[in-house]
Design a protein that fits this description.
- The chain is α+β, with helices and mostly antiparallel strands.
- The chain has three domains: about 80 residues, no CATH class; about 45 residues, no CATH class; about 60 residues.
- About 15% of the residues lie in helices and about 25% in strands.
- It has five helices and ten strands, in the order H-E-H-H-E-E-E-E-E-E-E-H-E-E-H.
- The strands form three sheets. Strands 5-6-7-8 form a four-stranded antiparallel sheet, with no helix packed on it. A three-stranded parallel sheet has the order 1-2-3.
- The longest helix is centred in the N-terminal third of the chain and has 14 residues.
Length: about 250
């Protein structure tokens, strides 16, 4: 399996903008103001010779394609740059005339709709049918979903067992618990064990159960933005219990 080697211009203090000066920024061209020396040139030449192909974006490709075809050097750097396969990841580049260049536009579905919001542009799904546009974005928790709530609870539990006979054991338990935000409940159980002989016994239990909803179930809410089939941005809300929204639908507790 091959590997991808990333080569990029970055200064010691983290600057990456306009290293060659072609973008016209005030500090542009900083990468070529200093010689990297013979060792630096040898390192870059070895890195290039080890590469089998080059993967580029449109802007970098256009800059390279305008310069490298006319460059000659004794080390063979230009010969390698011009001769090796070049793959350009771009959906807007129409032509790639530099030697051995191939445009990789990606999946048209991923960019056809673009920023135009033009429902007249057809997008075809995997089945060949026109797919409905859609998106979902989570902008974060807004102040309307933020809460500062909690709970406390208190419980009492009693459990007793009695060896009624040599072979029969009876047990009973009861528990009462009260939640500050959910109310109280009482649960219980009865159990027995009968030893038919020294090798075989039968045991059974009858019990009621209860589990209060977790704090996250009661208080969690979020809002996300969706693009519906008609192309309209719509907010979707997961509302917490006893909020203004759930109370409006009479579904609070």
């Amino acid at each position: 399996m091959g590997r991808i080697v990333v080569s990029e211009f970055v200064s010691l203090d983290g600057v990456m903008e306009d290293p060659g000066g072609s973008e016209g920024t005030p500090a542009g061209g900083w990468a070529f103001r200093f010689e990297r020396g013979a060792d630096g040139d040898a390192y870059k030449l070895e890195e290039l010779r080890d590469a089998e192909a080059m993967l580029l974006g449109r802007v970098t490709y256009e800059g390279f394609a305008a310069a490298w075809p006319s460059i000659e050097d004794e080390q063979g750097f230009a010969e390698k740059m011009n001769g090796m396969p070049k793959y350009v990841v771009s959906s807007t580049l129409e032509r790639a005339d530099w030697q051995n260049s191939t445009i990789l536009p990606g999946d048209p579905v991923s960019y056809t709709y673009g920023r135009t919001d033009n429902r007249g542009i057809p997008i075809y799904g995997q089945t060949g049918d026109i797919a409905q546009p859609g998106m979902q974005g989570f902008p974060g928790f807004s102040p309307t979903e933020a809460v500062n709530l909690g709970r406390h609870n208190i419980a009492f539990y009693v459990d007793a067992e009695s060896q009624v006979t040599q072979r029969l054991l009876l047990g009973a338990a009861v528990r009462h618990e009260h939640y500050s935000d959910f109310g109280g409940t009482t649960t219980g159980k009865v159990s027995l064990r009968f030893d038919a002989n020294d090798s075989f016994a039968v045991r059974g239990t009858l019990a009621t159960g209860f589990r209060a909803p977790g704090v996250q179930q009661l208080f969690y809410s979020q809002r996300s933005t969706n693009l519906d089939p008609s192309g309209t941005l719509t907010d979707t809300l997961t509302a917490r219990q006893n909020s203004a929204v759930t109370r409006a639908f009479d579904s609070g507790w």
